[in-house]
Amino acid sequence: MTTKRLLTAFAVLIIMWLIVPTLVIVPMSFNEAPSFNFPPKGFSLRWYENFFTDPNWLKALFSSLQVAVLTMFVATAVGVLASLGLSKVKFRGKGLLEGYFLLPLIVPGIVLAVGLYSLFLRMDLLGTLPGFVLAHTIVSMPLVITNVMASLQGLDPRLEQASSSLGAGKVRTFFSITLPLIAPGVMAGALFAFVTSFDEVILSLFIQSPTLQTLPVKIFNSVTQTNDPTVAAVAVITMLTSVIVMLVAQFATRKRKRPVAA
Amino acid sequence: MTDQTVTGGIAAGSAPGAGGGTPRRRIPSNWRTLLLFVPAFVIVTLFFLAPLIDVFIRSITDPKLGLQNYEWLFTTDANIAVIVRTFGTAFIVTFVCLLLAYPYAYLMTIVGDRARNALQLFIMMPLWTSILVRTLAWMVLLQDTGPINGLLAAWFGIGPIPLIRTTFGVALGMSQVLLPFMVLPLYSSMSKIDKRLLPAAANLGAGPITRFFTVYLPLSRPGIFSGGVTVFILGLGFYIIPALLGSSKESMISALIQQQISVFLMWGQGTALGIFLLVCTILILVIVSRFNKNGSLFPGVDK
Question: Does the keyword Magnesium apply (chain B) (predicted)?
Answer without folding.
Answer: no
